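Reviewers of the previous submission asked for a worked example of the structure-prediction workflow described in the proposal, so we include one complete record here. The input consisted solely of the amino acid sequence. No template or homolog information was supplied to the procedure at any stage.
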Amino acid sequence: MNGNFYRLGVNVGVTHRRLKSTIYALSSGLGKCGVAVIRVSGPCASDAILNMTHLKYLPKSRKACLNKIIDPTTKEQLDNGLLLWFPGPRSFTGEDCCEFQVHGGRAVVTSILHGLSKLPNFRPAEPGEFTKRSFYNNKMDLTEVEGLADLIEADTEFQRKQALMQLEGALRQLYSSWRQHILENLAYVEAYIDFSETDNIEDLVLENVKENLEKLAKEIEMHLMDNRSGELLRDGVKVAIIGAPNTGKSSLLNSLCSREAAIVTDLPGTTRDPIQVPLDVSGYSVLLIDTAGIRSQTVNLIEDLGIKKSKVQAQSADMVILMADVQYLLDVDNIDLWLQNYVKNLKVQYDNCLVYVNKIDTVSDDQVVRLKKLSQNSNWTVCFGSCKVNDGLSDMMRTFKSRLQQLCGNPNFEHPRCTQARHRYCLLKALNSVQMYLDISKSDENIDVAAQHLRKATLHVGKITGHVSTEEVLNVIFSKFCIGK
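From that input alone, the workflow returned the following structure tokens.
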């Protein structure tokens, strides 16, 4: 086990002392519930069973049995519950583990946790400590750890699917194969350096390495050319509703979230500060933001500040819904040019925009048909409707869902996507190191220097899965977990 800690770059002595203790925590949710699960892990986990029940021997592993739960010192009965025994290494943490499944009242849970605290070498678990022990005992790598955290935090169906595939090892398999591929080619390079002058090393060995690494570099590049779709799916898509005052931005927000989230009046400038509403749109997580109306001439300082905030929201958004009043567009000679100038003023890219032309109930059908024909020849995605009479919103939602699918995609095990900025950073560093090797290795005289870049590439990929890491990185990852996981 100590070799494993050295491999991770962790302080062996401190970590080993921490792992000697037996930890316990409530693993189910806080508050009153039907059943509460209390988890115990560590070398003395069996003591929890033998001291907090009337059992003389450990029960059969992974078999639930009903027992009276008692205080280890007073022998007072605390509850009647199910007991499960998971001897290591076939447990979540890789250590001896047990679980008490008891009634979920606060007094019951508190009394059992208090009873566990009386046992020698037992202590409450820190946030994420069960998962950290699983990682240290090679039951999970860091991508799977992050997948577990994402699964716990998942709010939508696609977030759940992506997190579950990551927990099942989709990213681990991909990144581990890349690291192994670099190591194998590094071995050929080092053999060439050490033995090319004294032994019969094939002349084409470096050429084969070059071909292998060029292919790998293309794979990594393709993996990174995903427009951050995996990260958007995990973190949610930020969508800002932008437009002139009184174009119906707040009405659209209320229609999309099916409640009165924003105040709606006929007076322009009702919204001053951005209003944020999280939504689940067909399995995609969306943060919808209503903003203050944007116009060139402002009435007062407060409105001016609101407009500045609106532009900031537009520039930081992953998608912009640009609201336009249909009557205003009737007077525009060139809709494409007007939209182009409007978006340029906002400093956002047009391909991130979805245009919604509102208040079509205020004009004639012929006028709407004429505008729709003009929009069909446009480079923009334009939808028409009326928030007031609930017309055209279903068409707009279909287009909205389609754009979300283009941004986030649909997760699948065959083509796992980068889900963390940490992964992307390490992969970019690894790719740069591989490309540095390819550039420098063109001259055999510099092959020693080139090989060093391959070593760096293995380190960068290893940091993603945890083959090489630092205590600081581990602390950041595991601190996001709740106590009991």
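The longest strand covers residues 77-86. We consider this example representative of the routine output the project will generate in years two and three.
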